[in-house]
Amino acid sequence: MVVFPLHGGDVRAPSAVFDQIFEVFLLLGTAVGVVVVAYTMYHALKYRDDGGGTDPYADKVERPEMGEMPTGGAGGRKVFYSFSISAIIVVSLIAWTYSQLLYIEQGPDLAQEEALEIDVEGYRFGWDFVYPNGHTTNTLYVPQDRVVRLQVTSTDVFHNFGIPELRVKTDAVPGQYTSAWFTANETGTYAAKCYELCGSGHSLMTTDVVVMPQDEYEEWYAETNGTAASGNETDQRIATEATALGGAPA
């Protein structure tokens, strides 16, 4: 039996990183909104006209006459403080978000994480997945809690490979390879789709991503022995291409 190291369980998955970015923006935006609305309502109520006809702050502030520029305001300190605090928050948020996206771009440290490398080939209108032992399949099988690196290309036109639930997305360019990575913490079947309009069968260019427990994946991988796709998968590819081109499967 082929034994694979278990690394992905200790790695932050792209889905977790994007969820964290969303939560930080949501919480910070909500906090800023609450402060601004509360500050506005406080001053609107405090300085409202009560209909008495007199200025209750006449002896406390110096009102400008018609045509005069307002004075006072503590020398603009409030504006300076508010601008400085806002700038610090925005710059810090940009720097933190950039560091998170840089982690997504570069992936985990290869010196510590031994990733499973899979080649992905897009064609009209389906996907081929080539494993290190040469096995080719139309369904992506991966182990749970393992870093998976995809090398994506296309055999004909521009495609875009994406697994929305796992937050994976990269271009499939003819003659070039683009890379993406992910790790799935839960077993199950996810949907991979093409996100680049590539022809009449674009909407049919979907496939399953099966996340398996480690031992089940090892057993499945040991049985492949570098073989090509199974007969059912080959028939499915032919049927998909024929349907997309407006014909009937042979």
Description:
This protein has 250 residues and is of the alpha+beta class. Among the domains are: 9-45 and 89-105, no CATH class; 109-226, Cupredoxins -  blue copper proteins (Immunoglobulin-like, Sandwich), CATH 2.60.40. The chain contains 4 helices and 10 strands, in the order H-H-E-E-E-E-E-E-E-E-E-E-H-H. The chain has helices spanning 14-46, 77-106, 214-224, 231-244, and strands at 116-123, 126-130, 136-137, 140-143, 148-154, 159-163, 168-172, 178-182, 188-194, 206-212. The strands form 2 sheets. Strands 3-2-1-5-8 form a 5-stranded mixed sheet. Strands 4-10-9-6-7 form a 5-stranded mixed sheet, with helices on one face. A hairpin with a 2-residue loop joins strand 1 and strand 2. Helix 1 (14-46) runs antiparallel to helix 2 (77-106). The longest helix has 33 residues, at 14-46. It starts with 13 loop residues before the first helix and ends in a 6-residue tail after the last helix. Residues 1-8 have low confidence and may be disordered. It is a multi-pass membrane protein. This is Cytochrome c oxidase subunit II. Keywords: Copper, Electron transport, Membrane, Metal-binding, Oxidoreductase, Respiratory chain, Transmembrane, Transmembrane helix, Transport. Belongs to the cytochrome c oxidase subunit 2 family. Its main location: membrane.
